[in-house]
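Worked example 3 (structure in, sequence out).
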């Protein structure tokens, strides 16, 4: 039987009315919401939205963190046949204008004062926006804007409507069909205005169910919902799969308490981009460097055992008796406490996606007993295209095609996908839809890759970004910037990297240091610094980054296809790349072309042979003010290695 989101809610409320559907931490205490209570809340919010004037097929914006009443609002909209459109809560007001106008949105349901201010700020540019409802009333007592009210008032008006029309919402919800539009997600817009990706109940729930069956998820599982709901990855894991399986979604108190809440909840099913796993490991290594000598020695000894034995055990392969005993001792002394400290003591399945994860980082988690795996997908594919089976997780692939998915490669090496989870269309953009969806149902991913001998998919880069070196030692060699950037980011000292080299004689990169990791390193080496800009330009830091770059070059020299992508020169940027400054997307992907234009004088200096370059850059602060950061940046040369020929 094919379901809709609202039919699944009704199913859980009927069969498991008292079981917890969600938990939210407020004032340090976890509060549970049962399936029956959630269904009641959804019914009242839906009726309130109907009274306010929300119509079938109309779009409703939802902006905020993971909050039960915002989840209920999305279900309420779907109960009326309307379409929820989650937007990123950290987006600036100006970034919301296009999606709101493009989708003809009249109603917005937001989390708090910050989001209310954002909506009021852009109201003149979005004249059709007539209703704004907020969840958290703090700071909003004296607001008297027309059309602004609390979700509480929405619920009360809905409750009154339901008292005299008890079957209305249920009858409206029953009209929903699997092929009806269920949600719309806007892409990050790396090359222009974002596109609205339209998904049906069927496309989202089919992929959610396939993923759940693949990893044997049950109602007993728990997740922590801490990533932006506007990101389809979070939406699939804590909304579509939540309703498909019926497990418990836990909402942290705030972004600042996520690490604490992670330990308290102890999720069994965990999802995070590589950056989060990197951050967790970096914090562990920083603490270990500050530990006593005995603890450090014990940690490193047993981690050596884990590196040798852990991945083999995780892959279900036999290990020797002595190794088994030593690993068991390590589990008592190091790995168990470490998993507990990371909040992963109960994790049965952990996934990472969005960017490539470093092999050392990947192996670290698997070696200490965390079943970390990779997946491949996108907003347009409802996430699940490839998944790594248990005992078959590789650091350099993204798994095998999951149930219902077909994959083939075009003549240019582009990955083409056919799946029940494909988007219906890009909203109001038939030209863009035709560019990615062929007449016979194949979706063009724009990713370049290939299937290895075991049937696992390996991603190289975006097709449009794969270029060629022109002239010099590596004339005609392939250049894959994202591949190079990801190899650099495998080092804990490097947070971001931007590589250039297409149609040039050599590859040059700009680097962002990881301020916490490099700052800790500097303190241990008695290196004083006055802030990010000062630390980034220290000669000692350049030497540290140079060693990382040259390790990458040595690795690339052994790759037949990508030896020409070795890095000849680099510089460390004077500021961190930031989505608010337009340098990253809201999903933290580098906007390489934008950065090249913004820092054109640095690109010219890298390729012009200069040893330093002065630059002054305007930046935007969190409170909306602007300022500038200036510095004279060093530019360093690196060692490039002759290609190592593979054995015949």
């Amino acid at each position: 039987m094919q379901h809709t989101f609202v039919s699944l809610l009704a199913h859980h409320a009927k069969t498991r009315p008292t079981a917890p559907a969600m938990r939210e931490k407020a004032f340090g205490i976890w509060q549970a919401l049962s399936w029956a209570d959630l269904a009641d809340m959804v019914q009242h919010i839906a009726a309130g939205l109907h009274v306010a004037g929300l119509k079938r097929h109309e779009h409703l914006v939802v902006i905020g963190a993971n909050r039960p009443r915002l989840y209920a609002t999305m279900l309420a909209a779907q109960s009326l046949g309307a379409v929820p459109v989650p937007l990123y809560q950290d987006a600036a007001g100006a970034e919301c204008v296009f999606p709101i106008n493009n989708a003809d949105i009249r109603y917005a349901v937001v989390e708090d004062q910050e989001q209310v201010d954002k909506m009021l700020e852009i109201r003149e540019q979005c004249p059709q926006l007539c209703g704004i409802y907020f969840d958290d009333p703090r700071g909003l007592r004296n607001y008297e804007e027309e059309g602004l009210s609390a979700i509480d008032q929405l619920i009360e008006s809905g409750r009154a409507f339901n008292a005299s029309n008890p079957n209305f919402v249920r009858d409206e919800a029953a009209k929903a069909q699997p092929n009806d539009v269920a949600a719309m997600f806007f892409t990050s817009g790396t090359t222009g205005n974002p596109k609205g990706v339209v998904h049906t109940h069927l496309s989202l729930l089919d992929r959610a169910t396939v993923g759940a069956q693949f990893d044997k998820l049950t109602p007993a599982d728990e997740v922590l919902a801490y990533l932006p709901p506007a990101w389809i990855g979070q939406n699939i894991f804590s909304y579509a799969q939540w309703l498909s399986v019926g497990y418990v979604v836990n909402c942290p108190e705030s972004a600042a308490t996520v690490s604490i809440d992670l330990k308290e909840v102890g999720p069994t099913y965990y999802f995070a981009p590589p950056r989060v796993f990197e951050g967790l490991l970096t914090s562990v290594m920083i603490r270990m460097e500050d530990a006593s000598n005995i603890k450090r020695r014990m940690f490193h000894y047993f981690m050596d055992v884990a590196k040798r034995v852990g991945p083999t055990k995780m892959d279900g392969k036999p290990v020797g008796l002595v190794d088994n005993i030593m690993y068991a001792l390590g589990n008592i002394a190091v790995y168990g406490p470490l998993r507990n400290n990371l909040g992963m003591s109960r994790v049965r399945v952990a996934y990472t996606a969005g960017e490539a994860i470093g092999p050392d980082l990947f192996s670290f988690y698997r070696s200490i007993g965390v079943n970390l795996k990779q997946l491949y997908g996108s907003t347009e594919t409802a996430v699940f295209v490839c998944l790594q089976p248990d005992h078959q997780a590789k650091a350099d692939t993204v798994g095998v095609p999951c149930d219902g998915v077909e994959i083939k490669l075009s003549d240019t090496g582009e990955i083409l996908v056919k799946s029940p989870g494909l988007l219906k269309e890009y909203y109001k953009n038939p030209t863009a839809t035709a560019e990615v969806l062929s007449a016979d149902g194949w979706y063009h991913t724009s990713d370049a890759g290939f299937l290895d001998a075991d049937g696992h998919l390996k991603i190289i880069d975006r097709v449009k970004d794969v270029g060629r070196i022109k002239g010099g030692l590596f004339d005609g060699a392939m250049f894959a910037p994202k591949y190079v950037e990801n190899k650099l980011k495998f080092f804990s000292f490097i947070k971001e990297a931007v590589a250039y080299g297409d149609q040039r004689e050599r590859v040059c990169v700009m680097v962002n240091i990881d301020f916490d990791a490099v700052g800790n390193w500097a303190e241990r080496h008695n290196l004083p610094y006055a802030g990010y800009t000062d630390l980034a330009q220290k000669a000692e830091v350049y030497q540290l980054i140079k060693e990382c770059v040259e390790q990458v070059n040595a690795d690339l020299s052994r790759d037949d296809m990508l030896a020409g992508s070795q890095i000849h020169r680099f510089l460390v940027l004077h500021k961190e790349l930031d989505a608010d400054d337009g340098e990253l997307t809201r999903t933290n992907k580098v906007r390489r072309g934008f950065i090249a234009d913004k820092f054109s004088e640095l690109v010219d200096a890298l390729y012009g042979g200069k040893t330093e370059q002065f630059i002054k850059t305007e930046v935007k602060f969190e409170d909306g003010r602007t300022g500038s950061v200036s510095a004279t940046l060093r530019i360093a040369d690196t060692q490039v290695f002759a290609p190592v020929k593979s054995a015949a």
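Notes: The first helix runs from residue 5 to 15. The chain has a mean pLDDT of 92.
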